[in-house]
Amino acid sequence: MAIDLMREFLNEAHEQLDMLEQLFLKLEEKDARTIDAIFRIAHTLKGSAACVGLKDVAGFSHKMETLLDSIRKGEVVISESVCNLLLQSGDVLRALIHGVEEGLENYVPPEYNTIMNELEHASERTFISKEDNNDACMKLFVRIGLDRASEMRAARAFVILKRLEDIGRLKFSRPSENELLNGQVVPDAMIAVVEGDIEDEALYECITGYPDVTDVEVRYMVEVRESNWVKYMEYGRVLESKGKRIVLDFIPSTLKIDGGTLSFLGEALRHGWLLHSNDDLTFRVLNRITLKQVV
Question: Exposed/middle/buried for 88, CB within 10 Å: 0-12, 13-18, 19+?
Answer without folding.
Answer: middle
